[in-house]
Amino acid sequence: MAHPEIYLKKNEDKRLRKGHLWVFSNEVDTKRTPLNQFSPGDMVVIKDNTGKPLGSAYINPNTLICARLISRKPSIKMGGNFFKNRLSNALALRNKLFDKPFYRLIFGESDGLPGLVIDRFGSVLSVQITTAGIEKQKEILITTLVELFSPDAIILKNDNSQRQLEELTQESEVIYGTLPETLVIEENNTLFNIDVVDGQKTGWFYDHRYSRAKMAKIAKNQRVLDLFSYSGAWGIPAALSGASEVTCVDSSESALVLAQKSAKLNNVQDKMNFVRADVFDFLKKARENNERYDIVVLDPPALVKRKKDFKAGYEAYRRLNHLALQVLNKNGILVSASCSHHLTKSNLHEILRSSGRHIDRHLVFIESGSQGPDHPIHPSIPETEYLKTYFCSVSSSL
Questions:
Q1: For residue 182, what is the DSSP state?
Q2: Both 169 and 86 in a single domain?
Q3: CA distance 375 to 287
Q4: Which of 63, 89, 124, 313 minimizes the number of CB atoms within 10 Å of its CB?
């Protein structure tokens, strides 16, 4: 059975022809194909204004991004074979990249599954569905995951704001199997206790994997400050690599409890301090008390979630980097990161340049980083590239 059709306005097909997968509601010729005739999650064929098919998509007439292409073929169906093919392709790539089952298995559009993120924590899969189109196929998706991976448990992590935009429920649930009492993952030869149920996002952030490894290599005999530390993903590997002292600062008590458990798991608890505090307040007090660190890691949450937040978010990033530089020892290293898509790499570059000049420090970039290969970047979809990191060597003014 053919899918119903959606026609685009004249010239609104250009972005799709270049490889993007999104259709915005203001691009649809609603006089020709009214959006209110569709239900959230329905399958449609996208056509240009001349009637040429551009591909199959699922639709939500109530959202700004009203359709997302899943194939350039006009008659594809989202059944078991569809999910098995996409999941198998993603798994084949991860098997080339990693020798243990700890990685992001599905990264939305980059893996041909818009609206879906899956993190693999050994025998547990954490699934985040953010669109009505994937939600409608949830049972088929779960069945296929069980068939391919035979997991001990699958949890649906539905507690995110994107689901609210799609008018979906936000309660997380274990939809298959039973979660183990404790869940331990491995990253960069370091063990971590994670909380999939109550933890942020899917329960862990794999995206900084390679940048964390780079930082750990230079941490020996260094005094390290890990800001917005969450559950210690930067700080614990640093301690394991020979750092003399590591201080983790976060506002979440539950995150710091996890970090403490992981520190003990890796036998580095004696090297580590855990401070529950607002990072801005902590940095101000550290500056006033003349506290200095050899390495400062600044990895805040997304401070620019939407375009309209850019001005305030940019200022917050600027203040954080300015304060972080002021607590660095002479010849120290600042690792500064941003996961805000709307704050570009050039924006972060400028923040670091201007902050260094403002406090009269000689700041140079010695390394940069991006998201790991299990978060592949789609060349036609700039929204899939979000993470940027600069390693800065900072000394007195020349």
A1: S
A2: yes
A3: 36
A4: 89
C-alpha dihedral (251, 278, 268, 102), degrees to nearest 10: 50
Report the CATH number at residue 87: 3.30.750.80
Co-location of 157 and 201 in the same domain: no
Residue range of the domain that includes 99: 80-180
Helices (H) and strands (E) counted in the chain, each on its own, are 11, 19
Verify that 253 and 308 share a domain, yes or no: yes
Domain count along the chain: 3
Distances in whole angstroms, Cα of residue 214 to Cα of each of 120, 179, 334: 23, 32, 13
- Is residue 258 a contact partner of residue 231, using CB atoms and an 8 Å limit? yes
Location of structure tokens 């978060």: 375
Is pLDDT above 90 for 170? no
The partner residues of 83 in beta bridges, in order of sequence, read none
Model confidence over 341-360: pLDDT tens digits? 999 999 999 999 999 999 99
Does residue 215 sit in the same domain as residue 339?
yes
User: How big is the CA angle at 64 (ends 62 and 70), to the nearest 5 degrees?
Assistant: 90
pLDDT digits over 38-50, tens only?
999 999 999 999 9
The whole-angstrom separation of Cα 22 and Cα 5 is 16
Q: What is the CA radius of gyration of the chain?
A: 23
Q: Is the domain of 129 the same as that of 153? A: yes
**Token digits of residue 139:** 């049972």
Tell me what the pLDDT averaged over the chain comes to: 95
